[in-house]
Specification:
5'-nucleotidase activity; about 35% helix; alpha/beta; magnesium; 9-stranded mixed sheet; HAD_sf; 20 helices
Length: about 600
Amino acid sequence: MNIVNKIEELSDWDIDEMKRHDNANELCSSDAELRKRAVKIKREPGHRIFANRSLQLDRIKFYGFDMDYTLALYKSPAFEELTFQEVIDSLIELGYPEQIQDFVYDRKFPLRGLWYDKLYGNLLKVDTHGNILTAVHGFKFLSGHEVREFYPNKYIQVDDRIYVYYTLFNLPEIYLMACLIDYFSKVATYVEDRTSVEFGENILSFRAIFNDVRNSVERVHYKGKLKEMVCANIENYIHKDEQLPILLDRIRSHGAKTFLLTNSEYWYTDKLMTYLLTSENNGQKRDWKSYFSYIVVDAQKPLFFAEGTTLRIIDPNTGSMKLGSYSGQLQQNEVYSGGSCEVFSKLIGSMGKDVLYVGDHIFGDIIKSKKQKAWRTMLVVPELNHELKVFHEKRDLFNTLEELDTSISELLRSFDMASNQGPDAVSKIKHKIQQCTHELDMNFGLLGSLFRTGSRQTHFASQITRFADIYASTVVNLVYYPFFYFFRAVPQLMPHESTVDPEEPMHFKSWGDEKSQPASSGHHHSTFDQVVTTLPRFNHSISASASIQTHPDLPLHVTHDHDDDGDPDDENQDKDGQDLEFDLRSRITYTPPKRNTELTNK
């Protein structure tokens, strides 16, 4: 069936059927007009799940979920403001000046994925390769010259002086670090040098400020009253999605298992899950634990994905752990504490790739689960909706950047190595590109987009691409996809594939097309017999009548590992289990090489 007929067939489907074939528009990628018609089949952007690697949902037998910022999405900026104030109170108890009580949280400044340089006190936005995109000292955005004073090549790699802010819990911490560095840099009683501030006979290094803030954040989260305050006004801090219980129920009814794997302690998990999932039907209350096949709290990820801790069972009535290490089968409605991925996988009967784990922590949830057990991964990125909104509303800026880039290419096309000076217009266009990129960045926030600056992807974006098989703004987007759905990754094109027009004539020879030239009498070449005598001798002999194959045949079967997330036992086979055959001899000319008699006759 050709593409046009396929589109006509799609147009006759009802809306529900069209939603179940989200990727049908890939059939139209060669024709712009057909693409416009087929794009209507796509789900609305807020409901979409995006794929970095192909994933077939009917291969998934276990759906695992983190709790914080995954099943339980905290309201922004209310939760960040609460955390911000609690950490300030903790710092004042450590001796920090009372004036820091005047700090007010600004959600437009902090950005997930920033790096903090403990030596110089700088917040850094870094690209995929470690090149510095933006550097901030307090609230001062450093110029290119100032960045080079700290980092001569505007380049840095992760080491013990760098802390990466991976999670949404880090947002108030990022802003507080900027507030403190700015405060100590500007108040007259403090004298700043490159790595610290001095006041009287005291020295406070930027590393010490970081340690104090980091310890205060840990204390507020694990020993303070932050969680009690959330539970006391849970409607103000936790977003309740009515689709969440529907999602979990549908997974269970489909025959797959669900599990909750969270670092939070049981009492807090119980409070949040009760709010999110407890329902009443005909006067009967349904316990939230019935939505999960297995429940693990206090998991201590990422340690859970390495050596782990002792697996214990929790009494749900008291919240206390029972004595000893648990070694039996995992039971529904029971709650377990700790353990390891190795033990957990054995107890539930998982093979690894039959698990889809959903979380928000790119390191603790996604990278470690992918590396250690090859779990399939889904990253929750709540910021995604804002990114999509800006991308849609400021599409004209994206188009302008593309046009400016094309203009430079056209201007420079006629110049080569013999040219001594380029056109004056290039510098003007570069200036416009900088101006346009800056305007676009400011629409995302003071530090720009989570995923890029201009044409360069951030380190955080590269981590998503590398380790998250799929990603979405919320976990409930899974409810919009059928269990037989196939998430197919967008082809990753290299520059020579994406920028060269395939219809443009190619006035060059391919490497390897040159004909062999006769050997010059002035050069010495080893003869075939001389080469053979230098090869190692084998103890066995080959029969003189044996048929020697001197070249490979054109394969009649699929030889590549196709990107369809297939089962190794049935990939490249038809429904009857026979190898798929594709006889290409009528379309591909394969001429075996002939022996070079110039060499063999010498």
